[in-house]
Each structure stands twice: as structure tokens, then as C-alpha cells.
Amino acid sequence: MRIVAETGKPIAQVAQVAQALVRLRRENARLKKDSKELAMERDVLERCMVLWVK
User: Which tens digit of pLDDT belongs to each residue from 33-43?
Assistant: First the structure.
């Protein structure tokens, strides 16, 4: 309610922005997790390549 009072925006608009923020945070967390997994897969493939080249 503080945001509504401070900005003068309608409650529905503030709620919509808040929901979008929650979705973006979830998406960000998922992308960070995916990035971590891909980095681990890349490291494994690099090690395999080194062994294969030898």
C-alpha cells in the first residue's frame, strides 16, 4: 500500500508490476541454475576432449 500512496498509481497497476517482478525473479533463478549446469557440462566435455586428444 505504501507504493500506491507514494506513487498515486492504482492498486491494480502496482499489483501487476509486483507479479511481473516475482515472475522475473523466478526466471532469473531458473536461468542461473541452467547456467551453472551448462558450465559443469562444458567442464566435463573439456576434460573428455583433453583425454581423447592424448
Answer: 999 999 999 99
How long, in residues, is the chain?
A: 54
Task: Provide the grid cell at 22.
Answer: 516475482
**Cβ–Cβ under 8 Å, residues 14 and 7:** yes
Q: Which whole-number Å values give the CA distances from 47 to 14, 18, 32, in the listed order?
A: 50, 44, 23
DSSP conformation class of 9: -
Q: What is the pTM of this model?
A: 0.71
14 Cβ contact partners less than 8 Å away, ≥ 6 residues apart: 3, 4, 7
11 within 8 A of 22, measured Cβ to Cβ: no
Q: Which amino acid is at 13?
A: Q
